[in-house]
Amino acid sequence: MTESAARHQDGMTREADIVAALGGRPIVLVGMMGSGKSTIGRRLGVRLHMPFLDADHEIEIAHAGMTVSEIFAQHGEPYFRDGEARVIARLLEGGPCVIATGGGAFMRDETRNRIRAKAISIWLQADGDVILKRVKRRADRPLLQTADPAATIERLIGERSPFYQLADLAIASRDVPHEKIVDECIDALSAYLLSGRAPSSSSSETR
Fold first, then answer.
1. Contact 58, 91 (CB under 8 A)
2. pTM of the full predicted structure?
3. β-pairing, 98-100 with 27-30?
4. pLDDT digits (tens, 9 = 90+) for 52-107
5. Distance between CA 28 and CA 204 in Å, rounded?
6. Contacts of 80 (CB under 8 A, 6+ apart)
7. Which of these, 131, 144, 152, 160, is most buried using a 10 Å CB contact count?
8. Distance between CA 174 and CA 159 in Å, rounded?
9. For residue 1, what are the contacts with CB-CB under 8 A and spacing of at least 6?
């Protein structure tokens, strides 16, 4: 077996060990809008051979295809958050999968406690300038429909970070190849689940 083939085999074995250690629990990605939860979540699901589910998309399906922005506009944020909590509760009962949550979902005590009890959570931590660059061209972020989106992002980061810090793991989301972030998620999950400790790499120093 070549060296590259051996590394590939080792990686597959480690990923299978992670899935086994999860014991049927989902992996839940939390963090700000634009932190890469959906992008990284899809790739993480592929690596671990687990389905990927996007909570926002599931909410839209439950509302006959209305977008999140339309639900906010028509029904208001409290209505949306109630529906979001119900959808996430349902997804958490679906067995092993990777779930991307909306930016505000982890703020809710009920949802955060349910995730803690039933899943492993990963905070994708992104700085305000990275988030702004990723979302500024999009009109589907209802909380950013303000006169100063950059200031709004910084305010939301300040309000939400104390809650995101309660996640099991933290990975710095920045402008590097997506697979590097996925690799760091795999490393962190391996250390946390297989070694019984949080990773000591730079990716965990952002917590």
1. yes
2. 0.85
3. parallel
4. 999 999 999 988 878 888 888 899 888 988 999 999 999 999 999 999 999 999 99
5. 17
6. 59, 68, 71, 72
7. 131
8. 20
9. 9
